[in-house]
Amino acid sequence: MTEVPVVIIGAGPTGLTAATLLAQYGIESLVLDRWETIYPQPRAVHLDDEVCRILGRLGLSAEFSAISWRCNGLRLLDRDMRVLAEFRRDAAHGRHGYPEASMFEQPELEALLRSGLKRHRAATMRGGAEVTALAPEAGGVRVAFTDPAGRPDSVLARYVLGCDGANSLTRTSIGAVMRDLGFTQRWLVVDIRTDAELGAWEGVHQVCDPARAATYMRVGENRYRWEFQLTDGETADTYREPAALLPLIKPWTGETPSDQLEIVRVAEYTFRAQVADRWRDRRVFLLGDAAHLTPPFIGQGMGAGMRDAMNLAWKLAGVLDGTLAETVLGSYEAERKPHTTTMIRIAKLMGTVMTEGGEFGDLLRRVAAPRLHHVPGLRKRVLDTETPALHRSALVARPPLWHPLAGRLCPNAPVDGDRRLDDVTAGRFAVISTAEPSPAQRADIEQRGAVLVVARPGTSLHRWLRRGFARAAVVRPDGTVHSAGRDLAALCAAIPPYRAVPSVS
After folding, report:
1. Cα–Cα distance for residue pair 134/160, rounded to 1 Å
2. Residue 222 — very low, low, confident or very high, per pLDDT cuts 50/70/90?
3. Is pLDDT above 90 for 195?
């Protein structure tokens, strides 16, 4: 293979998601990863229902459901393990048809993503291939790499997606640098496997202790994760021996014998809040940790990279098949960078509120947290998985003043029996209307390659449009609202012509 439309550097969740989405549109890609096999250690453990919706688009929702564990909410605890506040999730499924919080082990998810990618002939993956250089050439980018034997090789790509992590060679190659958002904390991450039933509440436990902030969560049938803030002078080596580690987790493990607790991993992580100053240089794009790093307090690290892939893949497919102008690729950074920065700032705020402030901060938490349930709407706000609207761009027709729907994700609502919106739209543009279009409008929608969904009175989509003060909305292939309003004819005329039609397998 000497030329390929897209080279993807990195076969983590972000790169595999991008490759699969492109392959569904028939776009060939070559995925290069320095490791020959999946990295075996657990890292990310949480996805929300917006990101589970992406897994649904990949055709992996059933397989993911089989390896994931539903999380029932959040508890704030004081240093003595007394409950300060509890935010419980009651619904098994959210507005998109998936659990609002799912826990899992990253190696198992990556195995699913790799298995799913193999279903598509348009995608080729090469492990043990370490990228060494990127160089622009006429009509593309030359990607140089070494094979598992160390022999040099190269390929010419029309576009390159750098999904190569925090130490991204792609980021360095385009001269981008990380900008710090002012958050650095060192934490100990502990993963335990046990068949013993610990009996702890089935949700995230956040210990708000100024001396030792901690987080606990169950991530599977027999898998558990703890995170403890490290003090000055401590490292992961301080806690590698069971005699030092087990007292930290004893508030949750209780009288469980130590020989029933298998220590899977003890590692130190530095939680950072950083965003690259630019995410693109001509035909090269940054995605995932190459473009942004977030503290884990709202569980959006991996999901942010998968959102990047979802945002960019359909646009690239449209450009490569000649449907969309190349200028629309500028909307990737215009949309994703502000959204990601906002989410990182929220994570940073949550981390600061839960872990900092010393004894005075601890006193405030003890006084305020038990009264949080009296604040109107706070429970819904804490548990709500809906993320902010995307900023105005070439593909988000957001009015200068205000519109509640443009730039937001349209709910993946039931449409036809057991089918939901994503099953019907299948990666194409869609027009959702409360009224039956005229024959001319139907023809216009069809001519532009879009799908029509009539939102009948009493349905979720009808209520969603009415709450948004709209009679119709144009929804993009990634589920984002392109435009919304009351003039169906004007909305139909605004649909970008888009001929790329994905297939699930």
Report:
1. 9
2. very high
3. yes
